[in-house]
Design goal:
Blueprint lengths: L2 E4 L6 H11 L12 E9 L2 H11 L9 H16 L11 E10 L8 E14 L2 E12 L2 E13 L22 E5 L3 H9 L9 H5 L10 H10 L9 E7 L7 E10 L2 E7 L5 E9 L1
Parallel strand pairs: 1-2
Antiparallel strand pairs: 2-4, 3-6, 3-8, 4-5, 5-6, 7-9, 8-11, 9-10, 10-11
């Protein structure tokens, strides 16, 4: 039977990160996820935190919230699961490699929703083990959103052959936008998302984890790319992105997109046209 950990409100991501970092590697084997879920049964979609998020990520403030905001709401529950002592992997070495979301019905400001997260699907990878953190949002017992964040635990081992990786294709399209990213963007996004991983906050804290400068959150880049389509997306759609290269702060990147055969493909690229994020959107 699934062990459901119920929370009255979102747990503090900062405290969970400290707890998980001090705790080191989890006690379970890489293929043994605890049969556990984290739940907030009654969460209201308040306007004020969403407005702050929209200002940092580029979304217009509308009655309907974007799927990346629903990811932000389930992220503390994902962190709560990964911070448990018997979770197989330590947080410090995890790499967020891709994110997939399905928005099945609109989620509106003022509605009450049920938030849940769980870990699934550990698989061997050429560089370690990949696994999924799955978040869901229900409205009146109807699934409104499902998101899958795939993480790579570098250096971990799991028997078997690695599955064929899903590779997104960057569009051959001219630049549509250019984004200048200020040095404090990581701190801005951490303040509105709760994700205060030290690699995003300052040069000093980033160097502690092997980065010469802070890098912006992959989910900020995902959100900013989706905001470029704001007001021009179907009511229900699927969006998937692959994180290919970190973006150092401060920085300058470019956004391009093209539509073909009912699929919109987009890319965020930097120097020498190297992609940092590649994604696609399709209607459901």
């Amino acid at each position: 039977m699934t062990d459901v950990r119920t929370y009255a409100e979102a747990p503090s991501v900062n405290k969970l990160f400290v707890k998980a970092t001090l705790g080191g590697k989890g006690s379970a084997r890489p293929g043994d996820f605890p049969d556990r879920a984290a739940l907030i049964d009654d969460h209201r979609l308040d306007v004020e935190p969403y407005v702050r998020y929209a200002r940092v990520t580029g979304f217009a403030v509308r009655d309907v919230v974007p799927p990346t905001w629903l990811h932000v709401l389930t992220f503390p529950l994902q962190m709560a699961l990964m911070a448990e002592a018997d979770f197989p992997f330590g947080l410090a070495g995890l790499v967020h490699v891709r994110n997939d979301m399905e928005l099945l019905r609109p989620a509106r400001i003022g509605q009450k929703v049920r938030l849940m997260a769980r870990a699934e699907n550990p698989q061997p990878h050429a560089k370690g083990v990949i696994f999924d953190m799955v978040g869901t949002v229900h409205i009146d017992d109807h699934l409104a959103w499902r998101g899958v964040s795939q993480y790579l635990a570098r250096g971990a081992k799991l028997p078997g052959e690695p599955p064929t990786a899903v590779r997104e294709t960057a569009p051959e399209a001219p630049d549509a936008q250019q984004w200048r990213l200020p040095p404090d963007l990581g701190r801005q996004y951490a303040a509105v998302s709760g994700d205060a991983n030290p690699i995003h906050l300052s040069p000093v804290t980033a160097r502690l984890f092997g980065f010469p400068r802070p890098i912006i959150h992959g989910m900020w880049t995902h959100a900013r790319a989706l905001a470029a389509f704001d007001g021009h997306l179907p009511e229900a759609y699927r969006v998937g992105v692959q994180f290919t290269k970190p973006i150092f702060l401060p920085g300058k990147v470019r956004f391009a997109q093209a539509r073909e055969d009912g699929i919109t493909r987009f890319v965020v690229r930097g120097k020498e046209n190297k992609p940092h994020l590649i994604g696609r959107i399709s209607a459901l």
